[in-house]
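Would you be willing to look carefully at the protein I have copied below?

:::
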Amino acid sequence: QVQLVESGGGLVQAGGSLRLSCAASGLMFSKYAMSWFRQAPGKEREFVAAISPMGDSTKYTDSVKGRFTISRDNAKNTVYLQMNSPKPEDTAAYYCAANWVVMTTTPRTYDYWGQGTQVTVSS
């Protein structure tokens, strides 16, 4: 069965850094586009970043450009989100998601989801 397991969340001070990881199993990892989404209480799930199956293309929401970096290691079946200079407004539960071949930004298009990891940014 397919599993996506996020880790690396926690409490971080504004201006610090944090790296989230998502370990995948049960799927042909190099055939899936991978994304990070986030959701704060009372808000809809929001696209953060995506990376193509072979890692040659990325996309970011405007609010994190220049601060966050998505990457993947297909040999380890893992996708990462490096969060530099996080802001209090980045506080949310972060989820990784996998979609067959196509890199998109719409939650409903994704085939698999992790359980999420909480990121809290203090000022």
